[in-house]
Design goal:
single chain, about 40% helix, alpha/beta
Length: about 150
């Protein structure tokens, strides 16, 4: 199953961008034997400002995809439950899942309605650049949990 981290804005060579890229590469390498990956980071830049334009740019990347919106109103999952959810989607035959991170003002209601699930990073507010790195790490952690690696400690 392919995994996409789809986000508004370009991080470039920032610390957060490099960290997210590193975890995505680790998850890709570790996930091959589990039929998980590649894990790709897709950054979009809307042509106009605002959540509706961001949603349009994001939705252009979502054909035939199980969409999980990263949203403060979503469900916060412990790491093992997150790993189990990824494994369940893979085992159900989902070919591609995309975790979608909006811009500074969050995701447009249209995109939230399109999403099959909503995922929260907890009750705190996180900068979307940092949320991208955190999400990439959690995907890597999920892969290592499913592989039986000692990376995750309960």
């Amino acid at each position: 199953m392919k995994i996409a981290l789809l986000a508004v804005g370009r991080l470039g060579r920032s610390v957060e961008g490099q960290l997210a890229k590193d975890y995505a590469e680790r998850a890709t390498a570790s996930g091959r034997s589990l039929s998980l990956g590649p894990v790709e980071i897709i950054e979009v830049e809307p042509r106009k400002p605002g959540k509706a334009a961001e949603a349009e740019a994001l939705m252009a990347q979502l054909a035939d995809t199980h969409v999980i919106a990263c949203d403060e109103g979503g469900t916060a999952l412990p790491s093992r439950a997150f790993a189990d959810r990824i494994a369940m989607l893979r085992d159900q035959g989902v070919r591609r899942v995309a975790f979608v991170i909006g811009g500074a003002d969050g995701l447009d209601a249209t995109l939230l309605r399109t999403a099959r699930e909503r995922l929260a990073f907890g009750p705190q507010t996180w900068p979307h650049a940092l949320a991208r790195a955190m999400l990439a790490e959690q995907v890597y952690r999920a892969v290592t949990i499913l592989a039986g690696s000692p990376y995750h400690r309960d």
